[in-house]
């Protein structure tokens, strides 16, 4: 059963990556984090929770635009006064009636590529505070190559 679940998750991940809305490639010499999240929840629910959480975290997070399949925001803090651009691309999955989310945070100004996990935490803190990491069958896929500083991240919402 576990093998079937893992194979299904990988298949869904592959399928939704083929239908993905492209996310801009990070500019060289800017810290960044790209991650893929799979949910067994419809995209409209994911979008609503993420947008609500961005608004709740104001003024550190600022919502720039939103539509049913994408969300754009900025993040600023004392650690990153120039801030980061945050993008979420939501893609409905056919097999589970769920949602595949491609999320990215990219530093705006020239920064060290080793950001200590700041860009990862920008994404994770929104997800955690909104309760989305507790949804059934939630799965996150990223690594140090796609998300610089991922292994060093110590996220506090």
From TrEMBL:
Residues 1-20 form the signal peptide. Keywords: Signal. This is Uncharacterized protein. It comes from the Eukaryota. It comes from Eleginops maclovinus. The lineage of its organism: Eukaryota, Metazoa, Chordata, Craniata, Vertebrata.
């Amino acid at each position: 059963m576990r093998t079937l679940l893992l194979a299904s998750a990988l298949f869904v991940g592959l399928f939704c990556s083929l239908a993905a809305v492209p996310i801009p490639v990070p500019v060289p010499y800017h810290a960044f984090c790209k991650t893929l999240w799979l949910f067994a929840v419809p995209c409209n629910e994911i979008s609503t929770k993420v947008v609500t959480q961005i608004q709740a975290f104001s003024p550190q997070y600022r919502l720039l635009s939103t539509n049913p399949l994408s969300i754009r925001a900025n993040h600023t803090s004392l650690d990153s006064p120039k801030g980061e651009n945050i993008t979420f691309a939501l893609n409905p999955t056919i097999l589970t009636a769920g949602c595949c989310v491609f999320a990215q945070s990219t530093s705006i100004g020239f920064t060290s590529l080793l950001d200590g996990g700041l860009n990862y935490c920008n994404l994770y803190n929104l997800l955690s505070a909104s309760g989305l990491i507790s949804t059934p069958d939630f799965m996150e896929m990223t690594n140090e190559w796609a998300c610089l500083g991922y292994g060093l991240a110590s996220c506090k919402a």
